[in-house]
């Protein structure tokens, strides 16, 4: 079944007074469309640094692997003495693990790792409860144990605030909303960036149109980044390989998420080694579609894969190109955003919230791509 034209799917909501903001994200990108047309901001940026290397942040490994394992090992092998300090240790560890599961992007390590942490945590607590229930002797708290859990308690308080923002980011806020079909054909997908707060969507750092640094990228403030993963939840063959072809996303078909007309298409930019980025333009190979009430941008496509030309009419599910690693992309993924048409052209129109297959997607949400090019639905997992 094909979707109806965008004006019928476009829902008018009360415009929000502001966008919520919190922390940044891992996959950075900015899509600035325009067939061979560069804004002063983009041109200046390109002159300063046409390519750049952005190493994968070591804190992600610390946050997603080292910290959870250390906390679980501490709780399992050397829990603090005293009932009160132990309860604080258990609750604080639980809050930190939940925060990591909600805020960190789980394309690497795979999405199921936080569930493994939760299972290990549950086993540890159950074993401790059984042992402490059978041993009625009171074990007094030690000063060093109390001192040790103070930093953990502080980390848990910070984590609780971040978790609240991440949970809030999964709720569709007031504002303009457009309903689109899945832009990816086939496959298992995970959301790297998406949602209503910066705790889960790094694109919101461009949400201030008065900031000259982000004025030309205002339209992407409510964007979604999609990564293709395999059946095991892995997004690459190897641990952060530099060859983009080793990523599951690379070369995956991209289809039109709406019926409309091609406004701009730009091809010819090289797919960069991971994590190198090409900042001229940040969107790399990309296509902008005029879908009536909104314009939709599909960015970071594979060089030589774009199958449409400006002025061409497309239907929902028509082949657009393939996922690549061109432009300001730290690894192969598909960037999609919608904006109100900007009279000045470019990508500084008012951003619009996305529903993809009737779902408001936030970081770590998973879905399925369309069954085949021409299909329009995606089954949630």
Summed up:
By secondary structure, the chain is of the alpha+beta class. The chain contains 6 helices and 14 strands.
Key traits:
single chain; 381 residues; alpha+beta; Glucose Permease (Domain IIA); ten-stranded mixed sheet; two-stranded antiparallel ribbon; 6 helices; 17% strand; disordered N terminus
Describe the model.
- This protein has 381 residues and is α+β, with helices and mostly antiparallel strands.
- It folds into two domains: 6-55 and 174-368, Glucose Permease (Domain IIA) (Distorted Sandwich), CATH 2.70.70.10; 59-168, no CATH class.
- 27% of the residues lie in helices and 17% in strands.
- The chain contains six helices and 14 strands.
- The chain has helices at residues 6-9, 40-48, 58-77, 83-103, 113-134, 143-168, and strands spanning 51-53, 177-180, 188-193, 224-229, 253-255, 260-266, 276-278, 285-290, 295-301, 313-314, 319-322, 334-339, 351-356, 366-368.
- Strands 2, 3, 4, 6, 8, 9, 10, 12, 13 and 14 form a ten-stranded mixed beta sheet that branches. Strands 1-7 form a two-stranded antiparallel sheet.
- A hairpin with a 4-residue loop joins strand 8 (285-290) and strand 9 (295-301).
- Helix 3 (58-77) runs antiparallel to helix 4, helix 3 (58-77) runs parallel beside helix 5 and helix 4 packs antiparallel against helix 5.
- It is elongated.
- Residues 1-55 and 372-381 have low confidence and may be disordered.
């Amino acid at each position: 079944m094909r979707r109806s034209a965008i004006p019928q799917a476009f829902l008018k909501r009360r415009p929000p007074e502001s966008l919520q903001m919190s922390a940044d994200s891992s996959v950075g990108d900015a899509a600035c469309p325009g067939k061979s047309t560069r804004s002063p901001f983009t041109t200046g940026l390109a002159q300063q640094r046409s390519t750049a290397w952005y190493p994968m942040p070591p804190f992600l490994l610390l946050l997603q692997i080292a910290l959870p394992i250390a906390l679980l090992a501490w709780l399992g092998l050397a829990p603090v003495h005293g009932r009160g300090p132990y309860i604080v240790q258990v609750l604080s560890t639980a809050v930190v693990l939940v925060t990591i599961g909600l805020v960190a992007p789980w394309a690497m390590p795979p999405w199921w790792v936080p569930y493994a942490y939760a299972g290990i945590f549950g086993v540890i607590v159950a074993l401790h409860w059984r042992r402490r229930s059978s041993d009625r002797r009171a074990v007094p708290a030690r000063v060093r144990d109390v001192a040790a859990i103070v930093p953990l308690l502080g980390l848990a308080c910070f984590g609780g605030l971040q978790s609240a923002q991440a949970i809030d980011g999964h709720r569709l806020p007031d504002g303009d909303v457009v309903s689109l079909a899945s832009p990816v054909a086939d496959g298992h997908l995970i959301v790297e960036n998406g949602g209503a707060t910066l705790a889960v969507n790094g694109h919101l750092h461009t949400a201030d149109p008065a900031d000259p640094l982000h004025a030309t990228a205002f339209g992407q403030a409510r964007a979604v980044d999609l990564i293709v993963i395999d059946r095991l939840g892995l997004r690459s063959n190897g641990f952060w390989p530099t060859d983009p072809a080793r990523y599951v996303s690379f070369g995956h078909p991209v289809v039109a998420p709406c019926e409309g007309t091609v406004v701009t298409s730009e091809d010819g930019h090289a797919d960069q080694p991971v994590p190198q980025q090409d900042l001229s333009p940040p969107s790399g190979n990309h296509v902008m579609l005029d879908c009536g009430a909104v314009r939709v941008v599909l960015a970071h496509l594979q060089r030589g894969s774009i199958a449409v030309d400006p002025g061409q009419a497309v239907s929902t599910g028509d082949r657009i190109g393939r996922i690549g690693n061109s432009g300001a992309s730290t690894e192969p993924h598909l960037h999609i955003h919608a904006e109100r048409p900007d009279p000045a052209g470019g990508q500084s129109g008012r951003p619009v919230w996305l529903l993809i297959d009737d779902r408001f997607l936030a970081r770590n949400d998973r879905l399925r791509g369309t069954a085949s090019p021409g299909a329009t639905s995606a089954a949630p997992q």
